[in-house]
Design goal:
heterodimer, A: alpha/beta, Glutaredoxin, Rossmann fold, Ubiquitin-like (UB roll), five-stranded mixed beta sheet, B: alpha+beta, 7 helices, 30% helix, 20% strand, binds flavin mononucleotide, binds iron/sulfur cluster
């Protein structure tokens, strides 16, 4: 495939977390060296940029070529020479490196053609993957800091707050609290100093939404924060970033420095006479430290434990002063709202949840990665159109949204619109935007157990219902999975869950029972199978699973016996293979290896 | 301002907690982690009550909920009793042999908890009062360590504290008597550390640790007599009697 008219002037190498772990930085360096050392031979000017996450992590590292807008996937360092020779010098597209869309069985050139990118709408992620996060000029070329000028030089604080209120923007950190209203309440307080905080704790395991923005477009957050600070009359801001996010901290540090040098931050911003600065606080990384009051305690240097929020942070927050705390993604939305206006923003998404939401789509879907979609898109559209459906063409079972304390949503609710209120109603939540897809091989009791085990360690342990409740919920779930539970346990489980939900001190405890409550609600038969029949229908809970070989299907090939790591499979005299239950560790190797689907997974009565 | 608690009209000051108002009006709300001297914990959740404000109804911890407007409060609905029962059950599972919790369990007509394995030795419900008391003393010899279900109260690295003065404030505030304090002759043992006790110069009873006495003396920066609380009170009464002759 040759394209003579092709003039590449920009190459974007994704250096998001997923791609970085697959050597994308080496690829970037190699490409850069090639282009620079060979400059006299290249007639086109090319800039290679290390950008933030392109989102499509499943097929990373990704390289995008502009302005022609095609991309390569799964690139390796060893491909660099060929890319340079063929694509950069000769304008040839290397078929092998194009994305192969499994559903349409086609090679795809442009991101727009790939199902993964189709249906997406980028607001918060507008620059991520498109700009060099270390370059403020890149950010400005794409309209960056225009909103700040508009806000500081041409608007009153009332106009800014009204615009944000009017836009209907709701906090993207989980609770969906109206941002404009929060700002207005804080602006009305006559108690100084006031503080502005960006919540970049992102403690959900496996989540990387906020990280991608922090790493890939730090200026959008800074711009949002300065606008917010100006609106409520604060002069001091904090960027709370979890310690493991070293690249985010590095890029943010650089970005803050640049913003100060350009007069967008610090003293006398844009000559307006207004001062505001931001400092980075590195968070210890506890999940509970993402909770607003715990986060503030942590910034103050106290133990990161929540307090009751009967007095709101906008009144008494950091050091008991009026404080506005917003999530990374919330802040990144602000410049767009100020620039393009509330009505434009409101035209996207639903009436009650305007705008878009970033999700990390992971689990058993074909295309995993970071996505941003308009609110109100259905789960089915996200999972099947963007996610490409279930991996290995297995059957969908559930999708868990909202992080560790979100709920599991079953197949019958796949047409649920994804917005704050619909997810709540289904017993789950938006949370910060985790979305984990599960297929038929998942045991829902095991899933609930997994999340509660996480929460049992991440609860701060301060209040009785959360600490003691989660502990006992976990015991019951473990007993169910081991076949040691009784019928009454289900009622006890519900009783404890309801009490924890109603009486826990902070959001962690209040939401912790969600995985249990939703799995009981939507997958009760699985609980019953475990408790009464001592059987794990998905074949996940080892104590409740027996592997056996179906005589009728077995062709006596012996492949399973060869591959059994515990030598539990023997050939009887009758030539038929059988599994010695005393040796079997239920690893499932035989199930995977058998070409004739002859290994059966069944339930067993657990030994008491 | 007036609020209504269980149909009783109660006078309330702005910012006062519901618990304070209820107690003043002899309305009983159960608590475990509350102490008047160290208020504002909100950890045990036994004091949750229902607050109605117009159409909205919510459950709040009365020990920390500040009154800001006229509200109606219910302290003993069926839901609340059910929640408290579950909390007591969870606490009983944690400290099966503790007397305070045992009494509470009987009060709520609950059977012993057999469903869960418990630590027979455990007496602490992690209410947090002891570490608060120690902090207030300005010592901070004990603190909670670990998160979540592994949380516990401990001296640093579980070794005898180097800063503890053996004052016993922690044991004094503990609602379940979980902190062992042993006075034998002129020795006090607390948190696995031994202290010398000073005798009251009047009655001769051992009443304060030597380090504790020195600590207080230094803190208030004046000489004080080694006289125990009882004798000090007696002395004052005697003085009054001498003066007024009653
Ligand atoms: C246990 C727990 C963890 C949380 N973690 C985060 C987090 O990592 N990031 C975040 O922005 N918000 C988190 N939140 C929500 C915050 O408390 C708070 O609502 C949010 O940061 C407010 O910003 P927003 O209005 O822009 O969403 C968490 C809440 C709870 C209860
Ligand atoms: S609900 Fe859990 S995390 Fe929140 S304060 Fe209570 S113990 Fe801590």
């Amino acid at each position: 495939m040759k394209n003579q008219s092709m003039r590449i002037n920009k190459i974007l190498v994704c250096c998001g977390p997923g791609c970085l772990s697959n050597d994308s930085l080496d690829i970037y360096e190699a490409l850069k060296n090639k282009i620079e050392s060979d400059k006299p031979y290249i007639s086109i000017e090319t800039t290679v940029k290390a950008t933030g996450c392109h989102g499509f992590c499943e097929i990373g590292p990704l390289i995008k070529f502009l302005p022609l807008d095609f991309f390569y996937c799964n690139v390796k360092v060893s491909d660099v020479e060929e890319i340079y020779q063929k694509t950069i010098k000769n304008g040839e597209i290397i078929e092998r490196l194009l994305y192969h869309d499994q559903n349409s069985n086609q090679k795809i050139k442009s991101p727009e053609e790939a199902g993964f990118y189709k249906g997406q709408k980028k607001i918060a992620l507008r620059n991520v993957g498109e700009i060099d996060p270390l370059s403020i000029d890149d950010y400005m070329k794409r309209g960056g800091y225009k909103a700040l000028k508009k806000a500081l030089l041409k608007s009153t604080t009332e106009q800014i707050i009204s615009e944000v209120e009017e836009s209907g923007l709701r906090g993207r950190g989980g609770a969906g609290f109206p941002t404009g209203f929060k700002w207005r309440q804080c602006a009305q307080m006559q108690n100084f100093p006031k503080y502005i905080i960006c919540n970049g704790d992102e403690g959900d395991p496996g989540a990387f939404m906020d990280r991608s923005i922090l790493e890939g477009d730090p200026h959008s957050i800074i711009e949002g924060m300065v606008i917010g600070a100006y609106a409520v009359d604060s002069h001091s801001g904090f960027m709370y970033i979890r310690d493991e996010y070293f690249l985010a901290i590095k890029n943010m540090t650089k970005a803050l420095e640049q913003a100060r040098n350009y007069g967008y931050l610090g003293q006398d911003i844009l000559g307006s006479g207004y001062d505001f600065d931001i400092q980075i606080v590195r968070g210890g990384g506890a999940f509970v430290c993402g909770e607003s009051t715990a986060l503030m305690a942590s910034i103050e240097g106290r133990v990161g434990e929540p307090r009751a929020k009967y007095i709101r942070s906008v009144e008494k927050g950091l050091w008991d002063k009026p404080t506005v705390l917003n999530n990374v993604e919330t802040w990144a939305n602000i410049p767009v709202i100020i620039n393009e206006g509330a009505s434009r923003f409101k035209s996207i998404g639903t009436a009650q949840s305007p705008g878009t939401k970033v999700f990390s789509l992971v689990g058993k879907v074909k295309n995993t990665g970071l996505i941003e979609v308009p609110m109100g898109m259905t789960l089915r559209q996200i999972i099947y159109d963007i996610g490409g459906g279930i991996a290995l063409n297995k059957k969908f079972k559930a999708v868990q949204t909202g992080g560790p304390s979100g709920g599991c949503i079953p197949e019958q609710l796949l047409d649920l619109k994804v917005d704050f209120d619909s997810l709540d109603k289904a017993g789950s939540m938006m949370g910060s935007g985790g979305m984990i897809v599960m297929d038929e091989t998942t045991c829902m009791v095991d899933v609930a157990k997994y999340y509660l085990a996480f929460l049992s360690e991440e609860s701060c342990g301060k209040c009785v219902p959360c600490r003691e409740g989660i502990r006992r919920i976990l015991v019951i779930l473990e007993d169910i999975c081991n076949g040691r539970a009784q019928d009454e346990d289900l009622d006890l489980l519900i009783e404890i869950c309801e009490t924890v939900q109603a009486t826990a001190l902070c959001g962690l405890g209040k939401t912790a029972p969600n995985p249990v409550i939703t799995t009981i609600k939507y997958f009760k038969d699985e609980y019953i199978a475990h408790i009464r029949d001592k059987r794990c229908p998905a074949g996940v809970c080892k104590e409740l699973t027996i592997y056996s070989i179906d005589k009728d299907k077995c062709k006596s090939c012996g492949l399973c016996a060869k591959n059994c790591p515990s030598s539990a499979i023997k050939q009887e005299q009758s030539k038929i293979f059988t599994i010695d239950q005393t040796k079997c560790t239920k690893c499932g190797a035989c199930v995977d290896i058998c070409n004739f689907h002859a290994v059966k997974i069944g339930g067993a009565l657990a030994c008491r | 301002m007036q609020i209504i608690i269980d149909k009783v009209k109660c006078e309330a000051k702005l910012g006062e907690t519901l618990l304070t108002i209820a107690r003043r009006n002899n309305i009983h709300i159960p608590t475990l982690c509350h102490s008047d001297a160290l208020a504002g914990q909100g950890n045990c959740r036994m004091c949750m009550v229902e607050v109605s404000e117009g159409k909205t109804k919510k459950m709040v911890a009365s020990c920390i909920y500040p009154v800001t407007k006229s509200i109606e409060v219910i302290t003993n609905s069926e839901t609340l009793t059910k929640m408290r029962k579950t909390l007591v059950m969870l606490l009983s599972a944690r400290v099966p042999h503790n007397n305070t919790i045992l009494k509470l369990r009987q009060e709520y007509n609950l059977p012993p908890v057999t469903r869960f394995k418990s630590d027979d030795e455990e007496e602490c419900i992690l209410c947090g009062l002891c570490t608060r008391a120690c902090d207030e003393m300005g010592i901070s010899a004990i603190s909670t360590v670990n998160r979540g279900i592994n949380k516990k109260v401990s001296t640093p690295f579980e070794e005898p504290s180097t800063v503890c003065i053996g004052c016993g404030a922690c044991a004094h505030v503990c609602p379940t008597g979980a902190i062992k304090i042993e006075d034998i002759g002129e020795e006090r043992i607390i948190w696995e550390k031994s202290f010398e006790l000073l005798r009251c110069s009047n009655c001769g009873k051992p009443f304060i640790t030597r380090v504790g006495f020195e600590y207080i003396k230094n803190k208030i920066n004046t000489e004080i007599e080694t006289v125990c609380e009882n004798c000090r009170k007696d002395a004052i009464t005697k003085k009054l009697r001498d003066i007024y002759g009653f």
